[in-house]
Amino acid sequence: MEARAGTERPPFAARAPAWALGLIPLSLIVGAAALLALVGAPGLGERTGPPVEELAIERTVLRPGEIELTVRNDGPDAVDVAQVVVNDAFVPFTASDGQRVGRLAATTLGIAYPWIEGEAYEISLLTSTGGTIDHQIPVATETPESSSHFFALMALLGLYVGVIPVTLGMLWLPFVRRISDSWIRLLIAFTVGLLVVLGVDAGLEGLEIGAAAPSVFGGQALVLLGALAAYLALAGVDSYLSARTAPAASTDPVDRQPPAAAGGAARGGAYLALLVAIGIGLHNLGEGLAIGSAYAVGALALGTFLVIGFALHNTTEGLAIVAPLAKGTPSLGRLAALGLIAGAPAIPGAWIGFAAFNPSIAALLFGVGVGAIARVVWQLVPAMRDERGRALHPGAIAGLAAGMLALYVTGLVVPV
């Protein structure tokens, strides 16, 4: 009996390869779903009451004598657009992909209507079941056509509101290199305060856009998902670089800070400056989206006041980039690269905002900006610490307040 017991085969779980064990639950789930479909899913197909009809307006385009709406089915049931009402009057319309809009499908409605520049319009889409989907145009203005002239204009606008102001703000570097350690810590805190306001602004903007996006794609949750993805991605990059770079090898001058702060800036100010530039760049990408989409509907007041407003607002971002560099001697090429990283994303953002604006993508990108800024703030906090290891010492608190106030005040002059 003992000999036979010694020759018993091990259980299946010990003999089977790992991939086979992983496929067993998956196979059972697929089999159960197939069985449910084979028997007709009894009870699940029975519906009572009217269908759930939801349409999201993704884009509005105005041309002389025509209003064009791109709508997407945001609900579980197909929607038949039967009639269109503009300011209480029934009007003729066409549908590019048919009047019946299936789940997740989209169609473009061409509404023949002699709208007047500057007037407000309320549009109601009547479905075949009698439901209504309302959409408002606060101020009607013709949508500019995409052209090479437009892309050149958006590029120029991106330079005005992104690259030039940020680069001008970086001219504070000689001043930053001449001040004491305590003032360096105050400027780092100023940078953190500035980034906090940028993050809050991007988050609120993303939530507002996400509220108008189709909820089936995530809606406002896309802001959170984008923020988490960006934060984790930057954290992963940081961990990778930490494993490859020994802290002792850093010669960059945020090493002026005391040992208590060294952990947060082990690789020095050049690395922190790069992180700040990335965070600001992603925020300016979202800012470019807002500019492009506003330009598309004629809601952007182009002119000298706009340029001056953004110049004042974004110049503080340049100071935030050079603050971690302290006593460093970065080359002009590196400074130019940092300025482009921070300011240039406003250009493609403006292009996308006008030519291919999608509220779901915009909400996700704003969330990415929030996550990147949150990671940068986390990296900068140790550099605020004083000789006693305190992050929230009086100088840091003053810097935080000054940074938040500066961005808030300069933001008041931006006419967007």
How are the SSEs ordered, and which strands pair?
Blueprint: H1 2-6, H2 12-15, H3 18-38, E1 55-63, E2 66-73, E3 79-86, E4 89-91, E5 93-95, E6 100-101, E7 106-112, E8 121-127, E9 132-137, H4 148-169, H5 173-178, H6 181-212, H7 221-244, H8 259-262, H9 269-296, H10 304-322, H11 332-343, H12 346-355, H13 359-380, H14 394-411
Antiparallel strand pairs: 1-2, 2-7, 3-4, 3-6, 3-8, 5-7, 8-9
Helix pairs in contact: 4-10, 4-11, 4-12, 6-9, 6-10, 6-13, 6-14, 7-13, 9-10, 9-11, 9-12, 9-13, 10-14
Please give a structural write-up:
The protein is α+β, with helices and mostly antiparallel strands and 416 residues long. The chain is built from 14 helices and 9 strands. α6 runs parallel beside α9 (269-296), α6 (181-212) crosses α10 (304-322) and α9 (269-296) packs antiparallel against α13 (359-380). Mean pLDDT is 79; it is low at 246-266.
Distance between the termini: 88 Å
Specify the oligomeric state.
single chain
Q: What is the strand tally?
A: 9
Radius of gyration, taken over Cα atoms and rounded to an integer in Å? 28 Å
Structural class of the helix and strand makeup?
Answer: alpha+beta
Instruction: Specify the biggest β-sheet.
Output: 5 strands, antiparallel
Q: Looking at the structure, what is the overall shape?
A: flat
- Individual helix count: 14
Run of helices and strands: HHHEEEEEEEEEHHHHHHHHHHH
User: Which regions contain 5 or more consecutive residues with pLDDT less than 50?
Assistant: 246-266
Proportion of residues in β-strands: 5-15%
Roughly what is the average pLDDT, rounded to an integer? 79
Share of helical residues? 40-55%
